Amino acid sequence: MRLSIFPIKHQAQRYETVGDWVWDPTRQDLTIYVSKTGNWKSEMLVGIHEAVEALLCIDRGISQGDVDNFDVAFEDARDKDDGEPGDEPAAPYFKEHAVATEIEKKLCAELGMDWDAYDKEVSDASL
Predict the structure, then answer these.
(1) 31-73: pLDDT as tens digits
(2) Where do runs of H (alpha helix) occur along the chain?
(3) Burial level of 93, CB count in 10 A (0-12/13-18/19+)?
């Protein structure tokens, strides 16, 4: 398996998100796209979150299509303060997202970053 993380302009995301994963099972290729923040630590934290989430989904048979369909529907129906799609208990990848968030929080602390400041920085990337 190959894993790649690419920071991109937020407007280039496939839908309204700061982190997106694309799995190509034929090539065994996992590609992560993160919205640029100008801070490599923030970009890689989002990328690691997406990688963990994707790996768990792949391992557990949760398809990218199911994740994408849920995310797009959530974003289309969301109010500004609804949180992330993966935080919704109805998300097909709810447990996988929760594990990825815990790892992301631990890595954030190890990188000497404040979680709330990081969260704001990532949210601002979507503006």
Answers:
(1) 999 999 999 999 999 999 999 999 999 999 999 999 999 999 9
(2) 40-60, 64-77, 94-110, 115-124
(3) buried
Count of Cβ atoms closer than 10 Å to residue 103 Cβ: 15
Other Cβ atoms closer than 10 A to 38: 10
* Token pair in block for residue 93: 């990848």
- What pLDDT is stored for residue 76 in this prediction? 84
- CB-based burial label for 75 (10 Å; 0-12, 13-18, 19+): middle
Give the distance between the most distant pair of CA atoms in the chain.
Answer: 39
Closest by alpha carbon to 74, among 91, 57, 98, 49?
91
Whether 54 and 23 have beta carbons less than 8 Å apart is answered as yes
Instruction: Provide the edge-to-edge strand list for the sheet that holds 29-35.
Output: 2-8, 29-35, 19-24
Give CA–CA dist 73/79, Å, rounded: 12
Q: Which residues pair with 21 in a beta bridge?
A: 32
